[in-house]
């Protein structure tokens, strides 16, 4: 593994990138997740190359952060250089950039993951919704808060929402203020970055996983939710669609009152939940088979 800056990584496994260090190999895997100042130098190396693309978030979602916006813009612009330089590419979303024959590359090991049961969770007194992802505009957690506002009005059960993930400096301050305005301070848990053990507890106790993201790469939390037998509701956007591949419940509206109605109606029907879990179980099995 070669990189320009090995921050906090094991030095025995990470080597500094120099133009001469990569010549003696059969294939270079280029992980591309932002503007790379060394890309042109890297592409001059006469060794076959493949692209592992991390679906760079469009710069428009970082209007409040000039550095991130410029990094994202530069990274997407560099796709034109990579398109003609690689022999294979792994990602979604690249067809629009002129790539052909791209493949999905699940960025996690599913070999030890067991398929969850098809039985819906018992009828609990509290409806616990969960989303895992950095608090940032393109993850769109504000839509979840607005949806929760309407769910609270129409559900006979108590409703709770847990948001797990580090916070963007600006958006991370906006969301608690929005929760306060919507009178949801008691219903929303901003957990921040948590341990693996705590994350497991959240998956185990949740009733459903709601993904409001406007942009994703290969969305690992969706697979984790499938593995824990949580019915998934997700906006129909690139990245999410490729990860779920028809599993879960596809949401085609961003109107919070409609989302609240859809989520509640589905979760109150054991037959619907069982059908959703079956679709997710099949998708999880196909991802496991892909890796074997």
Q: Strand pairing plus helix content: what structural class?
A: alpha/beta
Mean pLDDT: 89
* Rg from alpha-carbon coordinates: 21 Å
| End-to-end CA span | 24 Å
Provide the spatial order of strands within the biggest beta sheet: 8-7-6-9-10-11
Oligomer: single chain
Report helical residue fraction: 25-40%
Can you count the beta strands? 11
Order of helices and strands: EEEHEHHEEHEHEHEHEHEHH
What shape does the CA trace take? Answer: globular
Strand share of the residues?
Answer: 15-25%
Helix tally?
10
The major β-sheet equals:
6 strands, parallel
Low-pLDDT segments, ≥5 res:
none
Helix and strand arrangement:
Blueprint: E1 2-3, E2 15-16, E3 28-32, H1 39-43, E4 49-53, H2 66-77, H3 79-83, E5 88-90, E6 126-132, H4 141-154, E7 158-164, H5 171-181, E8 188-192, H6 196-205, E9 208-211, H7 220-227, E10 232-235, H8 240-244, E11 249-251, H9 256-267, H10 270-291
Parallel strand pairs: 1-2, 3-4, 4-5, 6-7, 6-9, 7-8, 9-10, 10-11
Give an account of the 3D structure.
The chain has 292 residues and is α/β, with parallel strands linked by helices. The chain has ten helices and eleven strands. It has helices spanning 39-43, 66-77, 79-83, 141-154, 171-181, 196-205, 220-227, 240-244, 256-267, 270-291, and strands at residues 2-3, 15-16, 28-32, 49-53, 88-90, 126-132, 158-164, 188-192, 208-211, 232-235, 249-251. The protein has a six-stranded parallel sheet, with helices on both faces. Helix 4 packs across helix 9 (256-267). The chain is globular and about 65 Å long. The two termini are 24 Å apart. The mean pLDDT is 89.
């Amino acid at each position: 593994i070669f990189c320009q800056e090995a921050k906090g990584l094991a030095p025995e496994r990470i080597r500094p990138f120099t133009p001469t260090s990569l010549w003696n190999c059969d294939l270079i895997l280029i992980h591309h997740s932002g503007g790379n100042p060394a890309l042109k130098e890297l592409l001059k190396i006469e060794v076959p190359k493949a692209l592992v693309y991390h679906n760079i978030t469009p710069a428009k979602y970082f209007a409040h952060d000039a550095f991130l916006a410029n990094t994202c813009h530069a990274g997407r612009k560099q796709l034109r250089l990579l398109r003609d330089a690689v022999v294979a590419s792994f990602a979604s979303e690249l067809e629009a950039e002129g790539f052909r024959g791209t493949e999905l590359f699940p960025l996690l090991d599913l070999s030890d993951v067991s398929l969850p049961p098809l039985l819906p969770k018992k009828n609990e007194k509290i409806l616990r919704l969960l989303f895992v992802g950095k608090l940032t505009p393109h993850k769109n957690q504000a839509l979840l808060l607005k949806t929760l506002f309407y769910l609270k009005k129409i559900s006979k059960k108590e409703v709770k929402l847990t948001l797990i993930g580090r916070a963007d400096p600006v958006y991370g301050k906006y969301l608690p203020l929005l929760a306060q305005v919507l009178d949801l301070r008691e219903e929303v848990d901003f957990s921040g970055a948590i341990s693996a053990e705590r994350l497991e507890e959240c998956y185990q106790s949740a009733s459903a996983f709601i993904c409001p993201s406007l942009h994703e790469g290969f969305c690992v939390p969706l697979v984790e939710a499938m593995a824990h037998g949580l019915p998934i509701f997700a906006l129909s956007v690139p990245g999410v669609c490729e990860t779920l591949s028809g599993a879960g419940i596809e949401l085609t509206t961003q109107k919070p009152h409609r989302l609240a109605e859809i989520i509640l109606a589905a979760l109150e029907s054991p037959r619907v939940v069982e059908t959703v879990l079956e679709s997710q179980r099949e998708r999880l099995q196909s991802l496991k088979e892909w890796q074997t």
